[in-house]
């Protein structure tokens, strides 16, 4: 059967007059219905591990806006938890994890085969969604890329410059490399299980790729992405992969070709005009409206949205923000963006 979902067509390389659209963090705190369901679940992690409620929050932005894709509701830090790290969220501050700073910390982690014991509710969320989504809506699964996940596992929290991870890389490369290899292998198994459960596309979030420069970018952002994509393509040749090496700058050039990704997601630090010339030449791109427009709205939101659609209009494009929508965004502005795209 010919593919009819707009998102899948873009990923197959089709140029469309009206691009498909979805948003990172589209199920999130800017939506009153999300806040209500989260309150019902108790806390964020309880929501992630409750398949019925996680499916419900995944569907909320689809009902409200008719996005072309739904993204599984979960978090990139569930993989460290499945590998045995302690994980909790401090309200107003963000995630906290037990740290990996020595060979003995690393040796206490669980083997990859055991991750599904923790992650099986996530696969159940996907199975529920495959039966609940509108026929035209694609279902996206995801995981964090090894470097980004490692930065949280090493520091035990988000860090402005990923200093602790860079330090372990320099001071104990054997432990650092072993951790990267463990996360890489776990990510292959996790994404593969998501595809089996119904994910039609998977996305790899490398939120902190921008702090890797030169050879370190090749070794710890590009190479793990290539390895994960090759392993997934061997098992699931039909499933497209979106890679998001956030703030990669010039390293966005050639990233799709080098890793085998079907689409490269762009943050808003690069201009759409530059990316059309240097990145979209290799295939589909996703992005890249600055999330702040969802807070400020107005004519600037409309103008920027149209500018990005136009800049990418000569090739395959998936409209998205350059990063996740923030809790202070106005839900009305999301509709303004969609109207500017769909005319
Ligand atoms: O995009 C989506 O809607 C899918 C679900 C999703 C979430 N997190 C839900 C979430 C995805 C894809 C993520 C990815 C994620 N999580 C990343 C990579 C992408 C990025 O944003 O750069 C990272 C670094 C994390 C780790 C994480 N989880 C952080 C730093 C936080 C923020 C803490 C805070 O309070 O703002 C989270 C929490 C989180 N993940 C929320 C959501 C909707 C907010 C939780 C809440 O309801 O309080």
Automatic annotation (TrEMBL):
Domain Uroporphyrinogen decarboxylase (URO-D): 20-29, 140-156
EC number: 4.1.1.37
Broad enzyme group: lyase
Transmembrane parts of this sequence: none
Catalysed reactions listed for this entry: uroporphyrinogen III + 4 H(+) = coproporphyrinogen III + 4 CO2
Pfam family, one: URO-D
Pathway: Porphyrin-containing compound metabolism; protoporphyrin-IX biosynthesis; coproporphyrinogen-III from 5-aminolevulinate: step 4/4
UniProt site (Transition state stabilizer): 75
CDD domains, per the entry: URO-D
Cellular-component GO terms for this entry: cytosol
GO terms for MF: uroporphyrinogen decarboxylase activity
Keywords: Cytoplasm, Decarboxylase, Lyase, Porphyrin biosynthesis
Amino acids binding substrate: 25-29, 75, 152, 207, 323
Compartments, record wording: Cytoplasm
HAMAP family xref list: URO_D (MF_00218)
Protein family: Belongs to the uroporphyrinogen decarboxylase family.
Task performed by this protein: Catalyzes the decarboxylation of four acetate groups of uroporphyrinogen-III to yield coproporphyrinogen-III.
Subunit structure: Homodimer.
Name of this chain's protein: Uroporphyrinogen decarboxylase
């Amino acid at each position: 059967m010919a593919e009819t979902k707009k998102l899948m067509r873009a990923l197959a390389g089709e140029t469309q007059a009206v691009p498909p659209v979805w948003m990172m963090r589209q199920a999130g705190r800017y939506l009153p219905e999300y806040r209500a369901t989260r309150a019902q679940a108790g806390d964020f992690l309880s929501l992630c591990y409750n398949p019925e409620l996680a499916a419900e929050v995944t569907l909320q932005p689809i009902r409200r806006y008719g996005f072309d894709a739904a993204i599984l509701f979960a978090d990139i830090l569930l993989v460290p938890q499945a590998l045995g790290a302690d994980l909790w969220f401090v309200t107003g501050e963000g995630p906290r994890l037990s740290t990996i700073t020595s060979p003995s910390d690393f040796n206490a982690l669980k083997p990859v085969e055991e991750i599904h014991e923790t992650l099986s509710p996530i696969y159940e969320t996907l199975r529920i969604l495959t039966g609940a989504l509108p026929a035209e809506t694609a279902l996206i699964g995801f995981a964090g890329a090894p470097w980004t996940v490692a930065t949280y596992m090493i520091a035990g929290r988000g860090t402005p410059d990923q200093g602790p991870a860079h330090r372990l890389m320099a001071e104990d490369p054997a432990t650092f490399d072993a951790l990267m290899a463990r996360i890489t292998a776990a990510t292959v198994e996790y994404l593969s299980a998501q595809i089996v459960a119904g994910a039609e596309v998977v996305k790899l979030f490398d939120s902190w790729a921008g702090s890797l420069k030169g050879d370190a970018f090749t070794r710890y952002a590009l190479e793990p992405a290539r390895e994960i994509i090759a392993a997934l393509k061997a098992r699931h040749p039909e499933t497209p992969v979106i890679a998001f090496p956030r703030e990669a700058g010039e390293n966005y050039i050639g990233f799709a070709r080098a890793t085998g990704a079907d689409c490269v997601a762009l943050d808003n630090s690069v201009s759409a005009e530059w990316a059309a010339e240097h990145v979209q030449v290799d295939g589909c791109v996703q992005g890249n409206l600055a999330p702040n427009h969802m807070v400020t709205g107005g004519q600037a939101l409309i103008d920027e949205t149209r500018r990005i659609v136009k800049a990418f209009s000569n090739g395959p494009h998936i409209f998205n923000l350059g990063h996740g929508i923030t809790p202070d965004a106005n839900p009305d502005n999301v509709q303004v963006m969609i109207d500017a795209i769909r005319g």
